[in-house]
Structure formats: C-alpha cells, structure tokens
Amino acid sequence: MTSYTVSLICAVGINVILAVSLNLITGLCGQISLGHAAFFGCGAYAAALVMVATSSMPLALMAGMLAASALGIAVGFASLRVRKGFLAVTTIGVNFLFVGIVRKQEWLGGEMGVSGIPPTGLGHLGDMTLIVVIALATVLFSLYVTRSWMGFAFKAVGEDEQAATTVGIGPAGYKLAAFGLGTALAGVAGALYTFFTQFISVDSFDFTLSVMLLAMVVIGGIGSTWGAVAAAAGLTLLPEAIRFVNDYRLLVFGTVLILVIRLAPGGIAELARGAFARGRTS
Amino acid sequence: MYYVELALTGVTFGCMYAMMSVGLTLVYGLLRILHVAHAAVFALGAYLTVLIANSAGSVAVGFLAAIALTPLFGMAIYRVLYEPLLKYHRDVPMIASLGLLVLMQDGFRILFGEQGVTFRDSSLSFTTYQVLGLTVTAPQIAVVAAAAATFVGLHLFTTRTRIGVGWRATVSRPQIAASFGVDPIKVRYLNFAIGSGLAAVAGGLVALMNNLVDPATVTVVTYKAIAIIVLGGLGSVRGTLVASLVLGVVEAYGTVFAGAWLDRDAIAFLVLIVLLLIRPEGFTGARPA
Amino acid sequence: MNAQLVLEDVAVQFGGVKAVRGISTAIGVGEFVGLIGPNGAGKTTLIKIVTGLVRPDRGRIFLEGQDVTGLGTPDRVRRGLALSHQIVRPFREMTALENVALAAGMALTANPWRALFHIRRREQYERAALILAKVGLAGTERKLAGNLPLGQLKRLELARALAVEPRIVFLDEPLAGLNHAEAAKQAETISEINASGVTVVLVEHNLEEVMRICRRLIVLNDGAILVDAEPGEAIANPAVQDAYVGGGAMSHAEA
Questions:
Q1: What distance in Å separates residue A78's CA from the closest CA in chain C?
Q2: Distance between CA atoms of C235 and C253, rounded to whole angstroms?
Q3: pTM for the full predicted model
C-alpha cells in the first residue's frame, strides 16, 4: 500500500467522522451548525498540545474529545439561549471567533500553527488503522443513536420543538446531548488529524471547512448516516480521482451543493430510498 | 490626534460596511433568507470596477459599469436560486447560497488569479488631502460621501416616492404588499437590484482604497456583514447603518486594545455573540423567524 | 384543593392587550367542560397557560394539588396532562404510527441518557396501533403524517394526546375544519374518552356538538369568565347571547 493510498484512506476516515458527527447535530436533531470546523480545530489543538507534552496517544485522544465537547456544550447552551433563527449566525460566529482568537495566541503557535507533533508510534499503517476503526465505530454509533429513543426524540425536536414538548420531550436536554456527542466526535477527529499530519495550523479550521462539512451532510441527505458517509467519502475521493476537480475543489463542491439542493433536496439518501421504494407513500 | 485618526478610520470602514450590508438586510427582511452569496456579489462589483476601469481607462466608467451590471447578477441569483426554493424550510435557500458563495470564491480565484487585480492607474488611491490636520485619502472621502449619498437617497426614496414608500412598507411587512398596490414580485427584484448595486459601489470603493482586489480581501470583509445585519436588526436599514458605523469604530479602537489576543476580523463576531447572549431575541425588534 | 385543576387569578397580557384577566376556576375529576366564547375571548391563550406553552404574568395553576405554574410543558405532560393544538402540529416526517408511538414512549424520552439506552419500540408501536384504531385511523399507520388530510390529522392530534395516558386533556378546536359527519364522529370519540374517566376540557366553536356532549360550559369573553354553568342554562343567558354578536351564532344551538 503506497503512502499516498494510506493518506487518502486517513483523509476519508477523518471526513467521515466529521460528516457523521455533524449529521447528529444538524441532520438528526435539526440544530444547524455552521461552525463544526471550530470543534474539529479545538480537538486538534488540544491533542497537539498533549502530544507535544506527553507523546501519549490515548491521552491526546481524550484531550481532543473533551476539549471539543466542552466547547460544544458551551455552544449548546448558547443555542438554548439564542432564538432558533439566530443559531446559524451564532455558529458562524463561533467559527470566526475560534480562528480569530487562536491565530493570536503565541502559545498555540499563532499564525504558524503547531509543528513537529510527535508521531503516535504506531507507524503510518497503524495510524491509518486507528482512523479506520474509529470511523467505523462512529458510523455504528450514529446508526445506533438513530435507532434508539434518543434518535426518535432528536427527530421530534429537530422538526418541531413545541410539538415535542407536548409528548413529554424536553428539547433543551436533547439539544445539549446532540451538541455534546457531535462535537466530542469532531474532537476525536481533530486528534486523529494531528496524528496523521503531525502539523496543524489554524487556517485549516476555517468557515469554509464548516461549509464543506455541512455540504457533505446535505448532499448525503440530512439525517442519514450512510448518506453522510457516502458524501464524505465521495467528496474526499473525487478531487483525487479527477485531477481537474482537485484544482477547482471548492468550485465543484459549491456546484454539487447547489445542484443537489435544487434538484434533489433529499440528497443521496433520498435518491437511494427512491430507488428501493418501500411501503411508504411519499 | 491618533485617536481621532482611529475614529476616522473607523467611520470610513463603517460606511463601507454599511453599503455592503444593506443588501443583505434587505433580502433578509423581505424573504427571511440569509443571502450569504451577497459576499460574492460584492466581490463581483469590486472585480468589475477594476477590470472595466482598466480597459476603459477611466475609474468612473468602471464604477458605473459595475453599478449597472452587478444588480443584474443579484436579481439572477434570486430568480435562479432562491425563488424555486422558497417553498422549503428557511435554511434550504441559505445552504444554496453557501454553495454559490463557495463556488464563486473559487471561481474568482480561478478567473482572476491568486494575486488578484489592481487598477492600472492607481493615482486616485494615493491622492491625499489635508483636512483639519489629518491626512485623508481620496478613497476615504469617496466612501463617506458615497455612504452619505446612499442613505440620504434611500431615505428620500422610501419616503417621497410612491414606489419607494410601497417598497419600504413591503420590506417591513411583506404580507401587506397588495394593499399598497405594489407587485410583491417587482419589490423582490428591486430589493436585490438595489442591494447588489450598493454592494458594487462598496466593492469598487474597497478596490480603490486598497488598490487591490484579491480572493482574500473579499472574504474577510464580507462575512462581517452577517454579524452586522443581525446586530442592526434583521431587515432594518437604519439599524444596519448604525451597527456598521459602531462596528467600524469599535474595530478601530478594539484592535488597539484587544489586538493582542483577538484578530481584528473576529471582533464583529465576538460582539455579536456577546450581545445575542444578553438579548436573545435580537435587536431593534428584529424577528428571525 | 380537591379539584383536579385549579386556576388562581391567572392573567397575561401581550403588548397592551389583556388577553386573560385574572381568571380563577376549578375543574374536577371526570368533568367534561366546554370552553367557549367569541373570537379573541382568550380561550386558546388560557389553554396555553394551563398547558405550559405560555407563561402567565401572574396567578397560579394547580394540577392534582401540585403547583405547576413554574413547570414547562413536558413536566406537566408527565404529571397527567395532555393537549391537542388548534392548528395541528404533527411530526410530518414521521408516520402516523411513529407520531403516536413517540408519545406512548414518554417514559423513555424523559431523559436523554435513558433514551439512548433503549431501542425497542415494539411495545409502543402496539399501543399506538390500538390508539389509532380507537380514533378511527386504523390503516394509516405507515403513512407519513405530512400526507394525511386535515380530518385525519385532527384525529392524529387526539391520538397523540391519548398516548401519554393523561388524566386530563385540553383539546383546542378538535372539530374545526371537519365536515358534519367527521365532526360528529370525532365528538363521539371524545365522549368515549371522557366516559373512560379522563377529564376533558374542550375549546370549540362548533356549538352544536359542544351542547350535545359537554356537561359544563365556561363562557369566556374579553379575557374573563362570563358564565360558568350547565350548557342549556349558559346558552340561554342573555349576556352570553350578547357576547356572540347579534346572537346569530347561537340560534342553531338552542335545543
């Protein structure tokens, strides 16, 4: 296996975790988050610092997860306070704030970022395996949540909070749970990212990435775990498969997003469902 | 003196933000869509101003051409992207808008290069005047003058002309358009046209101020518009003006005091989040949904 | 506080409008109360205050002896209350069965962490199917709520309210928009619910059915209780006739 293939698989794995975790928050629970890159970055920075200090991979993973979900729960609380229509703007703000603050912190490497992050000791193949295993676990977890009563409640909260209250569901707890879980996973992705690149800089975690992640969720089909996986894998591999696409990556992303929204708003998941029509009338 | 200069810089930027953000708030007020692609409209205006000025040999022609062409683009966005999606949940057109923004940002990079474009004749950018002991550049004067003209003009338009009055009423209360004898569809196009035109002016002026339009200049300034319109009260033109000016000045002073730990461009969002947490229902009677 | 529901001086105003002015009343177990009054009288607002969807400016609400004024709707629902909305709010992306099953699973969704550790829905689906049959929606189980016609959505609202096994239900215009036959059938179902021991408070404009099935009428006007009596007596009251402009709306209800 060439090192190119290894990096590719790592990239797909990380994007899958990011897309699936965003899908938990935005797809399943209906809380639009345009700042997911900030949680990814938060996890990455936390893990990077721990790795530099201790070279302990498990500690770094934990740090990434905890740091990101701490920030995530804070944003979750903000989402409770702020009126629903302002959530998108608030999450955009969180992303810009994260980048704007980190960029100025010398102890975080400032503009230069954090380099020379020690390797995990697993070797490239080992890191890749770790990423694949965690990506798989994430997908399984997401599928589980969807099938569980938490997923059932998420769906209600996402669609109509007031109606949810009338069947005994308290939206606040679920929104916090969604943010907490989704961002924790993003933090794990951040840690994995540092293991694989051994260098991070704040510009990788900007608003444009948040938009691309949301695009993956939308293109995959909001709420669908497998859709998010397909979209993440597809949109990561496409630029590699087609050289042309790589140079015009954002152009293609934007175009695909617009096409999907206009022509097939239900995303890949909807198209797939339509292909295997079940007993539902629609 | 230094602080006066800062205030001047702040006001100048504020005027620019105002002209850029009006378009965004107008669309939100009318359709409840967060028209993030407006940033691309602004950028288009900037690029067009420079490119046409260069080929026509006159900055004025560049401006005029941009003001004439950009609204067409803005209206096209409405027709092609938003109109068919109005029937869906509010976030859907916004996502389409995001797609367009990302597409165009990259498009500009591909078409005009990473280095961007500059005015062939850059004398105007560097012309300075001494006013009351301060050095001001021609572009700075132009920005303030343009903003003043814009807002006075808008005010007169919406209070003295029939179309303007009807338009303004419709923007605040879309559902009563009919009773004003105003065609709601025409109002929408007018909205996009005016907003885009103003953004084009703002874009051209930014180009003049920096003597450069490149992918970076564009993004930095334009995301702030989102924060500004929320702070100003979604849909409120006056609020947007106030918020823009205040933000411009806060940024100018803020960079001095907080620049050590916070990037200048994030100030807008810091202010936004703090204020939204304090006053979750928004500002000046805004109603997001 | 022996009554099941007690309101003490409940009032609320929006802007300058006093929607509900200091209302006090009590409703006992098993009662079948009709809440009527002209448009703008404050009926829906009052229901929203009792069910927790609107916070009153003053006053207290006691449910089965407990002060629930500070509690949100989910907590009140867990204490035996249920409601149906005036303008239906089904979960359109879910099937009829799922809508009702979600309500039936109220015990599991009380807490997100408990919800996370439970997957099986069989029991709730079975209960939901029975309830759907009871309200006359058998056969719609697998249809998406978003595709059902209004008449069926009204019954779905009712089904969802029943699924939380309430002891008192608040129904806001469950008959509105239904044709004569549908309304009669729905009214019949509601009577059956009451007959099984559930207290029913019904906001309605359809006076024909209200007169037929309710055993007590509270008439609201301009945010306050005008009359609180047994139906025949309430309708005959001249003040009530006046409140409904011209008395025209009342004529077809006089027995």
A1: 19
A2: 8
A3: 0.89
According to DSSP, residue C237 is labeled -
Q: Does C55 touch chain A (CB under 8 A)?
A: no
C39 to each of C47, C89, C204, C207, how far by Cα in Å?
14, 21, 11, 14
Q: What is the mean pLDDT of residues A146-160?
A: 94
What confidence tens digit (pLDDT) does each residue in C75-100 have? Answer: 999 999 999 998 999 999 899 999 99
How many domains, in total, are found in chain B? 1
Quote the ipTM score.
0.89
**CATH number, residue C122:** 3.40.50.300
Residues in chain A within 8 Å Cβ distance of B215: none
Question: What pLDDT sits at residue B60?
Answer: 86
Write out the residue range of the structural domain in which residue C127 sits. Answer: 5-253
In A, which residues are within 8 Å of C72 by CB distance? 165, 170
The identity of residue B215, as a single letter, is: P
CA distance C52 to A255: 46
pLDDT of residue B231: 84
Determine, for residues B103 and A96 on separate chains, whether the beta-carbon distance falls below 8 Å. Answer: no
More confident: A221 or C74:
C74
Is B286 domain-assigned? no
Question: Which residues sit opposite C13 in a β-bridge?
Answer: C18
Strand-strand pairing, B134-137 and B128-131: antiparallel
- Residues B186-230 have pLDDT tens digits of 888 988 999 999 999 988 888 888 888 888 766 766 678 888 888
